[in-house]
Please model this.
Amino acid sequence: MIKTDFDVLVKDTHKGRGVFATRNFQKGEVIVVGKPVKVAPERTRHSVQMKMNLHVEIDAPAKLINHSCNPNTGIKNNSFGAYDFIALVDIAEGEELSWDYETTEYISISVPQCSCNAPNCRGGLRGFSFRPIEIKNKYGEFIADYLKTLEER
Model:
């Protein structure tokens, strides 16, 4: 287990490492603030997309938050050039944090076979560009700013 500067703990799971709440969080609360550690020269399995042609690697614990097709956190761009992870619902102490990777990735290469086991699991991730409008609307403001701009065109 790894203790962090946030009210979360990194632990090993069947999916690898995951991030878990060490206290209760209320809907709307910022849980983790991600910061970039380096610009990735191209899309990688461990980068997050900030703009159409900008991918960055972010620090822990943000980079260790696993994907779910039914996530309990959403993302918002922050002033550091990465994403804040915000509670979409009330989150109980001990619960694993998750977010939908397709809310930042225009085309996704990180999860070809999804293992989130959510009732609404999509089976694999292809990217924001492949999602129907219902999925895109589900997250409202909790998608990458550059994707919001693309949708307005």
Notes: The two ends are 45 Å apart (CA to CA). The mean pLDDT is 90. Residues 2-152 form a domain with the Beta-clip-like fold (CATH 2.170.270.10). The longest strand covers residues 8-13.
